Amino acid sequence: MSTVIVFGPTGSVASVTAATAQKHGATVWLAMRDPQKPIPGLTPDREQEGGFKRVQADLTKPDTVAAAVKASGAKRAFIYLAIGSPDHMRATLTSLKSAGIEFVVFLSSYTVSGELGVIPPSDLIAYSHAQVEINLDDVFGPEHYVAVRPGGFATNILEFKHGINAGEVKIFGSKFQLDCITPTDMGRVSGTILVQGPKNGQQKVYLYGPQIMSQGDAIQTIGKVLGKDVKLTALSPQEGLDEFLRNGAPKPFADYMIRMLDAPDKEQKARTDYEAGVENVRLYTGKPSMKFQEWVESNKELFCS
């Protein structure tokens, strides 16, 4: 039986990753900043029955990462982008390897494609994930990690839930295109790769939802499921920027998002290997990529709270 360590299991993707790894027979250690926090979908009884173990760790603090891995004895790790890492997680990756990790699954982004080294810093999301992949290449080598590159998260639409419930969503970029890959699909694929490794020699695994839709259409889909009529009110670029800043986004990220949301359809970030990315969900889970409406219907409580 293999032992794996999953960082950030209180998140919607990592929690499913951990549960999937356990179903595949692994002993799963849950590495988290606050070991007392509840984990989605994991009741105390289920946690005990499944043999899950908790350990304190913070991906921005390499010493805690090394200590957690040594305590677990894990050889495989699931990680995500640690915001605020001054060296694009290089010290953290070095600590993982020195503590005994031999294989890493990194939750990257579909915005990463082509030559990693030529992605400019101005392409904020792609650049930040690509730099971690570059460091994984250097520290672990390309055969000892898999970058899972999902499309736009279905959960991103949760930022509009208060407006949906109020009957009016004020939005900039209502025509921005989404594929709405679900945390369930991302987690199941990641957990499977963590335990069993990649299929067909894949080292970069794109994942997408099966439908491309606009943000506006996604909001209307939620309203339909909840039985609510939702009015969309367009914001100007400046109003959109102000909204991001009010919600706590750093100014560089807010500026980046406004540029992305304002791009015409033909200039939006391409979804590399889209058809293969949709099929990858079935390849690793045995089930088709989940449609957005199906996910909303199964998670109504997320939009009602």
From TrEMBL:
InterPro entries: Ergot_Alk_Oxidoreductase (IPR051604), NAD(P)-bd_dom_sf (IPR036291), NmrA-like (IPR008030)
Pfam families: NmrA (PF05368)
Transmembrane feature ranges: none
Domain of life: Eukaryota
Residue stretches making up the NmrA-like domain: 2-295
PANTHER family: PRESTALK A DIFFERENTIATION PROTEIN A, PTHR43162
Designated name of the protein: NmrA-like domain-containing protein
